[in-house]
């Protein structure tokens, strides 16, 4: 069985699952929050804006820093992986799945890619929601397609280590809540790491997305390197465990 077929099956299994409700509810909530924020505080935000900042810049910053999207995105990724693996646990389908003519490496990789794909959708929907707010508010400046595209692209890349970690976690625990709790704790701890121990940020993947808005002095290039290293480590450890653990 081809890898792309396995990935398609992973997505198909979520056809009537909670994943779609989650992917719609979170961006809808952030869009509504930003719309209300700008309805109430738009004039104030313009008056207090930094030199050269446009309405689109302010919208991105409000979403990322004030609303906390940059801080909580890793937790959302963890929830997505918990939902993916909970489908197998709730239907007790591990034996059936692993009896298919497919290597365990391919099955584990398909889970990782499917979770990352859904996470990408979440990021894209959030960005589209921000654009919608800007159009509804009729910002006077031209739409900043490039900056918003770069913003989404950075997030898509910088969630990879967290995705690898939660793919491993979600397989390791039959109770999906455990992975979600660990993700929440990781996000809470990231605020401590970012503001009190910034020298540790580069090895703490839950903090990476906080710096993807481009308005902070964090060394994103260095984080990008460690993001790749940690992805390989987490994926490798998870695959090693998946190949040896009796999941039947």
Automatic annotation (TrEMBL):
The chain crosses the membrane at residues 18-36, 66-87, 108-136, 148-169, 176-197, 223-242. It holds the Pfam family ABC2_membrane_4. Coiled coil: none annotated. This is Permease. Keywords: Membrane, Transmembrane, Transmembrane helix. The keyword Transmembrane applies. CDD domains: ABC-2_lan_permease-like.
């Amino acid at each position: 069985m081809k890898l792309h077929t396995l990935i398609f099956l992973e997505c198909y299994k979520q056809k009537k699952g909670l994943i779609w409700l989650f992917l719609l509810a979170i961006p809808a909530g952030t869009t509504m929050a930003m719309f209300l924020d700008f309805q109430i505080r738009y004039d104030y935000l313009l008056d207090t804006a930094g030199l050269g900042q446009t309405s689109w810049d302010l919208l991105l910053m409000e979403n990322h820093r004030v609303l906390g999207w940059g801080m909580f995105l890793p937790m959302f990724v963890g929830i997505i992986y918990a939902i993916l693996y909970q489908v197998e646990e709730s239907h007790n389908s591990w034996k059936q799945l692993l009896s298919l003519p497919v290597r365990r490496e391919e099955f584990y990789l398909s889970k990782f890619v499917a979770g990352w794909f859904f996470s990408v959708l979440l990021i894209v929907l959030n960005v589209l929601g921000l654009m919608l707010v800007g159009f509804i508010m009729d910002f006077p400046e031209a739409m900043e397609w490039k900056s918003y595209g770069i913003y989404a692209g950075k997030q898509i890349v910088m969630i990879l280590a967290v995705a690898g970690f939660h793919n491993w976690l979600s397989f390791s625990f039959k109770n999906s809540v455990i992975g979600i709790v660990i993700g929440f704790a990781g996000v809470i701890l990231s605020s401590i790491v970012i503001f009190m121990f910034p020298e540790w940020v580069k090895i703490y993947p839950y903090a990476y997305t906080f710096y993807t808005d481009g308005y902070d002095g964090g060394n994103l290039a260095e984080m990008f390197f460690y993001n790749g290293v940690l992805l390989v480590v987490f994926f490798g450890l998870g695959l090693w465990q998946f190949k040896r653990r009796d999941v039947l």
